[in-house]
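Chapter review: from sequence to fold.
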Amino acid sequence: MATIPARGGGASAGGWLKIAGVNCPGGTVTSKVYADPPNNTVLQSATVTELAIEIEVKAAYPIVKIGNTSYTLVQSVDGGHYAGALAHTILGSGGVVVVAQTPDGAPGASDLVTLDYSAAPTILTLAFIGGYPGVQTELKAGDTFQLQGTTNKPADAIQILDYEACAASVETFIAGTAFTVTGTIADRGNVVLARPARCRARDAITAAYGGTRDTNQGGGGIDGQHVVNCNNLHPSVALGAIVYPVGQGALKGAEQATVQNTVLDFDTISYSSPNGDLSILSPTIYGSPKPATRVAGNYNVTVPNFRITAVRAANAATTVGQTIVRIAHVAASVAVGEPYARLRSGGNDGTAAQDYPIYVNSDQELYEAPSLDHQAGAGAWQGGGFTGGPSLWSRLLRVHDNDPKGAFGWSNLSAKNLAGILTTTITGDATYTLGGFVPRSLTFPAFSQSTTLNVAVVDYSKLSAGIFTATNQPAVRHTPQGDQGDAANEYTILSPLGTNPQTLWWNDVFAAGANSSGTAQITLVQEAV
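The token string follows.
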């Protein structure tokens, strides 16, 4: 490498020039040696795998030469030097000299890089070997096939390209000039076509890849040697409607259902029940609809238990389809639930009757909406029946202030599971409670300490109110219940608990006596849940 004059004021009239690197488009550059480790800005030598290269140069002047070929460099952003990549073709191993040209046209500073040319390996022979898997005559995506060949120099890997028969992969091995690798078949469509494979070899020293070679290079067409038959056609399996006994959506006992199915492009078929729920008639013969008889299982609406396995022999392509033939061999367990421990009423004193969802919750899907009776007079069903499903159903129960308070019973449950088995017994609590009432405001007649509450109070401790409008003070429940003694801003109930209507008594004698207009109110009177 030539001496590079110092940059700046001490630089010679010849300027300065350095070879900073070498590129090898389409190949690799290895074994780089620099003059100035660890900065590595002046390259001395390297090994290249292609004859067409690029030499990276930096110089004080814009014009440089390799032999008689001139190149113009580009000025750097900071304006301190010129740089460029010089396209050049070498004849083989040897030195390349780059010379700067001074402004007056005379030769200036120069630099030398020594290049060792080492061509990447060439594949000399390449063929499929080993035959098709099993008894196949075609290959589907994911199948494998061996490839064997030789190279002109040691290689340690074969790159199988994503081309025709094979998907892309790199197969490594102990360095040598003979190789056997395994290629993976790609999906190239559902029509049989003889296809070759394409590979290239990697140099064991430089890691450079050589040119490609096809298994049918030169026009060979021998099946299993130059080409292989690729066809990704799989059987198709489509499962359709399942027909159960009339009035059912599942099987019980030894009942039978039929399963619609359409299977195409297959040579062999197998019907099976993976969890043993079903016995399937003629399991190796295609048929649609296919009869399936329950032989086991108490309840199944989620786990596939009817399976079809279809195989196409030429490429061993297998397609599996499955569905659920529902089983409901035992009665459902059904509970009835309410949203609150007590269902409060409304409808009098300017309030609205209250609607509550009543839930029928089954541990199985039901074939149809269940039915249920409430105790006569203790609420009123709304709508035409229960809705929702398939396992949780609801219906509104309307509760009016005029309905009795207390605990009542649900009755006459009828819940049919998918196989038609009836459940008539309620699991768990079969009662509901009507108790309490929603807030309302009551008005006191002029000079009166009493007003009418048109709903029964059953739990005095749950009774509350908002304010007395006459005093704008909180209304306080009087203790004890029924005592009419004078007490500011207090109230009580005079009538026996559980009666409707009730008499609400204003214990505040002075405030009641001042109510000459008859507009004083007690607000938000309610009995909580």
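Two observations follow directly from the output. Residues 509-513 form the longest helix (5 residues). Residues 140 and 232 are 4 Å apart (CA to CA).
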